[in-house]
């Protein structure tokens, strides 16, 4: 039996981290954890309870209600991946909206929230055999991960991908609004005090501005295979 490793995938929004992570999990029969979905679910909870909006954030109220938030992933056989559940309700569709995207970086910057979710994420990876993507996986959650990847691409390319996703989903959005959201999330994620988005020293950087999913996947699988054999 080949050894199991931890694969940590960090990077900017809309760089295809989740897509690559899902493909790797399927190929190697690993557990896939979308940490971004966890922060999005907390952001949805905050929005539903009027703790956060585009122009406000009631940080203390949200922190005081953290014990009322239960997150879980439940595998959907038809889709082939796990969906996000918030307090027992499937919120996979709700957390992917632009409205939640505009709130998540503010919510994710709160230290108490990061502490709660990082602890849950570390517990999930106790037995290795896991692919996890997010903003601080290789630097904070699993600094000992055998393979660390850092995904990046130009803001314009990422906004174009995100715009197409939302249009295909039936949302009425403007490209300029998406581009602003991408750049603003980059700014907040990279400058927050607690666990800012940064490339781990030993991470391999992938700029996929002009790289397709198939090419990325082939290159990354070669890296995984090499690590498994070490």
Structure in words:
- The model has no long low-confidence stretch (mean pLDDT 93).
- This protein has one domain (6-229): 3-Layer(aba) Sandwich (Rossmann fold).
- The strands form three sheets. A five-stranded parallel sheet has the order 2-8-1-9-10. Strands 5-6-7 form a three-stranded antiparallel sheet, covered by helices on one side.
- The chain is built from nine helices and ten strands.
- It is globular, with a radius of gyration of 17 Å.
- By secondary structure, the protein is of the alpha/beta class.
What's the short version?
This protein has 230 residues and is α/β, with parallel strands linked by helices. The chain is built from nine helices and ten strands.
């Amino acid at each position: 039996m080949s050894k199991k490793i931890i694969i940590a995938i960090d990077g900017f929004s809309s760089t295809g981290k989740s897509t690559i992570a899902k493909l790797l999990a399927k190929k190697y029969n690993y557990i896939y954890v979308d940490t971004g979905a966890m922060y999005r679910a907390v952001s949805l909870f905050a929005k539903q309870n009027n703790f956060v909006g585009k122009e406000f954030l009631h940080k203390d109220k949200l922190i005081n209600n953290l014990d009322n938030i239960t997150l879980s992933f439940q595998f959907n056989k038809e889709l082939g991946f796990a969906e996000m559940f918030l307090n027992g309700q499937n919120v996979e569709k709700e957390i992917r909206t632009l409205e939640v995207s505009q709130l998540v970086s503010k919510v994710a910057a709160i230290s108490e929230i990061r502490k709660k979710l990082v602890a849950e994420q570390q517990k999930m990876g106790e037995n290795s055999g896991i692919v996890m993507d997010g903003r601080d996986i290789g630097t904070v959650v699993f600094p000992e991960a055998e393979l660390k990847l850092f995904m990046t691409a130009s803001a314009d390319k990422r906004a174009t991908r995100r715009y197409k996703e939302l249009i295909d989903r039936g949302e009425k959005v403007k490209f300029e609004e998406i581009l602003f959201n991408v750049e603003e999330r980059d700014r907040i994620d990279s400058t927050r005090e607690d666990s800012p988005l940064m490339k781990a020293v030993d991470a391999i950087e992938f700029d996929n501005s002009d790289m397709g999913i198939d090419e990325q996947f082939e290159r990354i699988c070669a890296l995984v295979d090499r690590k498994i054999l070490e």
